[in-house]
Amino acid sequence: MKQYTPFLTIFLIITIIGFSIYKQCMDQEQQEGLEMMEKETTITRPDGITVKRRKTRKRVTFDPLIENYKEGIKIPGLSAITKGVKKIPKSFTKVGKQISGGFMKVLGMITKFFKYVGAVFTSIFSYIECGFYKVIKLPQCMGWYLLEVFGHILYIPVGFFFWVFSLRAIEKKMWGILEDIDCFCHASTGYHLIHYSDSIIKKCYKCNIKKIPKFPKM
What we know:
Blueprint: H1 5-41, E1 42-44, E2 50-52, H2 64-70, H3 78-164, H4 168-189, H5 198-204
Antiparallel strand pairs: 1-2
């Protein structure tokens, strides 16, 4: 290692001398730059006095696109972008209306369906209720039911006669006349001629049955 020591010493000495010369040159250039700046920022008046120059404000220049927009000059593509931006709220409003309309339509369909289901259950319950009522009143109404069956059996030959000789139209007219006479008699006296009394009909024949509704249009 000792044989390299002189060369290292010489290298260090040369490096130090070179750095000193470089620094001296840089200091000189910096000093000259400061003097030039001072000359530029100072002015000598006619009376021989040196004063500083007044600083002038630099005019701020805007982007040509912004300047053109301010002056009302049309910029290519800007009008299309502006129209597109203006259409965004309308598009959102249109989409919102469509979503709202679809939601209300679905809600209406669901409401109709549940109303239909409720009406069906109400009708079924009315049939069940009427059946229970008939079973309970059967002992009190059995005589009237048997009398009605006996009347139908007696009418079979008469009905067969009208059917064989194609006299069904005359049969209907005859029953219509009898219904009119019965209504007149009931209105005058309160009694029926060809029907049971109102109390028997109410007790043994009438039921508050609700028909099953048709499926609604969705």
